[in-house]
Structure formats: C-alpha cells, structure tokens
Design brief:
The protein is an alpha/beta fold and 350 residues long. It is built from eleven helices and 17 strands. It is globular, with a radius of gyration of 20 Å. The termini are close together.
C-alpha cells in the first residue's frame, strides 16, 4: 500500500509499505481522511524518539470504510463507515485495573507506537471501531478524536452547566474543547485567550463570549474584571509549548491566578518546558491541578453531537490536502501559520 511515511525527523513523504496483516479480532479499514494534530507535529520534530521507530506511519485521527473483518469479528461488515479510537491498553496494569486505561503504563497508540492512519489501510481492533453515521461527511472523521478529547477534558475538569470557564490557547485543541463546551456542555461564561487574531475570530464564531488577545491585554486582569474579581470555576490549559515573552507568566501560572477559591485547572498541553507555579496561591485557594490524557470512551458522544449538527468542524478544518502533498502539509503545520488550524489529508489521494 501507499502511505505517508516518516523516515526521519522532518522527513515525511509518500512511500510504499507492507499491507497490514489482519488478526481474528481486527477489522481492516480502508482509510479515507486523517488529521495532522499537535502530537504528529511533535513526532515530526523529533520529540518522540523513545516511542516512534523509523520508518513510521503516523496518524491517529482517522476514519474510512471497512474493507475486511477478522474471523472472530461480529457486528461489522465490509462497507461500514467507521472511525477508529487509536488507544490500545494492556488492561492489566494498575491504571487499567482502576478504570484508567487511557493512562495505561504501556499505552500504545495507532499512529504513534504502531502504524496509523496515514496508510491507505490499517488493521484496528474491532473493539476500538465506531460507526460513522451517513449524515456525517467522511472528511469530518479526523475531528471525532479531537471532539472526544474535548469531552474528556471537560469531564476531567468536572465542568457543570452554568459554570464559568477559561480556555488558554485557541489552537486545534483549545478550539475543539470550546466547540464542545459551547454546544454540548452548557457553560455559562466562556473565555478564551490567544495571540492570533484569526484564531480568536474563529473562537467568536464558535460561541466564545469573551476573547482575550494576550499581547494586547493582561489575561489575568481581564478575567478578574469579567468575573468581578471572583475568578472562574475552571481553567483549561491547552497551550502546551508556549513562547516565552518578557513580563508574561506561563499559562499554568496564569491559570492559578484566574481560578476562584476551590476552583479547578485542567492541563492537557504537551509542552516540554518547566512551568513555574505560585503554589502558595494554589494552597490558599485549595484549588486543584488536574491532568488530562487522550480519551476514555468519549467517541460515541462526539459522534452523536456531530450527527445532530451541533458541532462545527467546518470552522476548524482550514485545509484539506491529498496525501501526495504530505510533505508540504507538515511543513505548513510546522510553520505555525496563524490561519492554519486543522489540516486533514485525503489518504487515498496518493
């Protein structure tokens, strides 16, 4: 088969790879569309050498049509439109046995540790496959994983209808969380920060009540003004790796100042930097910092909201390219063009 293959750091191009071998409990998916996400960019930049072995086929946000089913598979047939949850857990470690398979000690992801959705075909466990309704365009399939992340993050933060929420960072992840927050979680006050006008305008279109340009305003002071000095119920940190600027605190340090007493912070960005936090303030507020990693069974919720037309993938998917342009696609994402939010690849377009 043809695939977008990562041969080395910053060296991804179309090549030929062996067809996947189908196991009895798996289905063979003929991939249609796959997304480029932040993790893919980190892999491309060489930050995942401990997990990714070259040559590798990335892509963990993908969907397509079932080509073949394994001998032990029931409930699926060739021709079914599906999306794939890429998480593969051991189901035996302490995390798995206590209900956290997404934090599995030996967690593997299709498209990270194993070949993924940038290949024309992928073999996936039938237990990790979900039907995509006919009224959801296949090019939206990569967004299911993003919206499932949004659900998981909001659940980790215990966000309730009527609460006030700040999202730090209006990138791919932050805007996905915002879309779910505004149209599937019932938050009362939604605030989002970023340094790029295009992304903040997109946030407004998605329903954010307040947008804060961090280079023009002090985000902490603005949040305190909006909340009349009280602070918000929950801050969700989606920045990850941030660009340091004189006089500007790290996103996590800002979050500690933004939350109300007994508030919650959810951190889900994959930044490499150490983030200074004023723990005295955190202790005085008796606030929480909660980590969120990948998803935990939220794919059906994301699919349901997409099927009902409540989410807005068309605002987030800014570029659609054929797989033959995978080199240019990654270069575009790597440049961090402010008008590029989500890039999806037509996997069969080789």
């Amino acid at each position: 088969m043809k695939a977008g293959i990562l041969y080395n750091d910053q060296d991804i191009r179309v090549g030929t790879a062996p067809d996947p071998e189908l196991k009895p409990e798996e289905v063979l998916v003929k991939n249609s569309f796959a997304g480029i996400c932040g993790t893919d960019l980190h892999i491309y930049r060489g930050e995942f050498h401990a997990r990714v072995k070259f040559p590798a086929i990335p892509g963990h946000e993908f969907g397509g049509v079932i080509e073949e089913v394994g001998s032990n598979v029931t409930g699926f047939k060739p021709g079914d439109r599906v999306v794939v949850d890429p998480i593969i857990s051991c189901h035996a470690c302490p995390a798995c046995l206590t209900g956290h398979p997404n934090a599995c000690r030996t967690l593997k992801l299709l498209g990270v540790d194993l070949d993924g959705g940038f290949g024309q075909f992928v073999a996936a466990p039938a237990s990790k496959v979900y039907r995509l309704p006919d009224n959801v365009p296949m090019k939206c399939a990569p967004m299911v994983e993003m919206y499932a992340l949004g659900h998981h993050i909001l659940q980790r933060g215990r966000v309730q209808p009527g609460e006030s929420v700040v999202i730090l960072g209006a990138g791919r992840l932050g805007l996905s969380v915002l879309d779910v927050l505004c149209h599937g979680a019932g938050a009362n006050e939604t605030i989002i920060t970023d340094c790029q006008p295009f992304r903040l305008e997109t946030a407004k279109k998605l329903g954010a009540e307040h947008v804060i340009h961090v280079e023009h305003e002090d985000p902490v002071q603005r949040v305190m003004d909006i909340t009349k000095g009280e602070g918000v119920d929950c801050v969700i940190e989606c920045v990850g790796h941030y660009h340091e600027s004189p006089g500007r605190e790290s996103p996590l340090a800002q979050a500690v100042k933004m939350i109300r007493n007994a508030g919650r912070i959810v951190t889900c960005g994959l930044g490499e930097q150490l983030s200074p936090v004023h723990f005295k303030t955190l202790v005085i507020k008796e606030a929480e910092i909660i980590a969120s990693r990948v998803t935990l069974g939220e794919f059906p919720r994301a699919i349901r909201l997409l099927s009902k037309g409540l989410l807005h993938p068309g605002l987030l998917v800014t570029h659609e390219l054929p797989m033959r342009d995978v080199t240019a696609a990654f270069a575009q994402v790597d440049r961090e063009d402010p008008r590029t939010i989500k890039v999806v690849l037509d996997v069969q377009g080789v």
